[in-house]
From TrEMBL:
It holds the Pfam family Beta_helix. Residues 1-24 form the signal peptide. PROSITE patterns: PROKAR_LIPOPROTEIN. The keyword Transmembrane helix does not apply. InterPro entries: Beta_helix, Carb-bd_sugar_hydrolysis-dom, PbH1, Pectin_lyas_fold, Pectin_lyase_fold/virulence. Residues 484-504 are annotated as: Disordered. Keywords: Repeat, Signal. This is Carbohydrate-binding/sugar hydrolysis domain-containing protein. Residues 159-312 form the Carbohydrate-binding/sugar hydrolysis domain. It comes from the Bacteria.
Amino acid sequence: MDTRLWTRARVTASLGALSLLAFSCTTSVDQSGGVNEENPAGDVTAVCGHTVPGPAAAPAGAVTVDADVDGDLADRTEQSPAGTTFWLEPGTHTLGTGEFGSVSPKDGNVYLGAPGAVLDGQERNKYAFVAQAADVTIRGLTVRGFVAPADEGVVNHDSGDGWVIENNTIEDNGGAGMMAGARQQVRGNCLRDNGQYGINAYKNGPIGDLVVEGNEIVGNNTDDWESKIEGCGCTGGVKFWAVDGADIRGNWVHDNRGTGLWADTNNNDFLIEKNLIEDNDGPAIFYEISYNATIRGNTIRRNNIVEGREFANRGDSFPAASIYISESGGEGRVPARTDKLDIYGNALIDNWAGITLWENADRYCNSPANTSGGCTRLVPDMASCAAPNISKDPLYDDCRWKTQNVDIHDNLFSVEPRSIGCDSLCARMALISNYGTFPDWSPYRADSVQQAITFEQNNTWRNNHYIGPWTYLAVDTGKVIQPPQWQSPPYSQDRRSTYVQSGG
């Protein structure tokens, strides 16, 4: 389907000025770095193979690091004061043969790679840059061949704060290409073919003011961790844990073996905008047991086809969505730039399905089904979420992560099932929960949560445009709803939305 035809046709229709501006005049990259169809993602560019090079000569006052001397970078770092700038000459730099051979930066250190400078772990070293120094800059390097274990990272292994990681190629490593600390800026990098994640934004402490902008995040999870540890939830292009304030902008996130962008457990205040997210095996965006986000102006295409086919082949009716919202939504008591989960101005094209809003009735603080290990941001003492007090407010509401205050509007949803090899169980939206039964003291029994997410928690579709044979699920997965019923009571969704059966 050519979305340019849709763009021209919609100039006189009802999406509104903001959406029309978003959908009408921008371009995106294709696999070769050229341009293809119009989309709202903006000027997303190919980075891998095109990173901005570092300086060809050592800047004034910089310490030159010799590529021919094994471990020279680590030694010179140790010998130099905080705030030193290091220039790595062209060639391959190594850190010795020991598994813990690494660089321990000091506060304010700057590492600049000359064109052709490579830091190589030789499939022996676990980590490239370690220690909790603050305000470190790494620019213009290729970092490859490190063997970090699962859940650990190669660059900024200890999640130091204030790091600037810019214009690097971080590829072919074990674990995550990098970890993240507070105030970290990740710009213009190629994060490619790492064993688990491109970025693992996790720290034993607060992470806020995180910026991930203009990167190409591609081919990560080469070790296929979900097949090794079923249900681990430990893969993706980027994984965010308890990040409070993040701008994820202008990235090309594609061909990752799993989810593209995955925010999991008590994240808050995310702005996900103008990204091109395509051809990931799992969802493009997965926002899970988290709060308050804006998802706008993204182009999202051909995601979750691998997972969707797996679901369909085994007869699993759960909708494999391209944007998957799980126990997440707007909460005004958690400070953020918005008090809702606002999804607008996006173009979703030829994904397996659209948007799923899901709330697990059995997943709440102190439940055996809660795999997060913690509690909501509204309850300081998880043990208080127990009978009998959990059966009444405020704990009845505050002990569970709720899918609430989600506003889905002014988006394009287009799909041609034949183009994605779908015979059934695709081209769906969902607003669903499960029948609550576990454990026996749970106050969220029977259909209480199903009714709440569907009718009582201010979850709304409106002013969208659909192309293709879209259907809907509400309450649970057992009933297929056609658009006229979806737009009518008791659902009353997608008011002022428009439908075209085929893109032609």
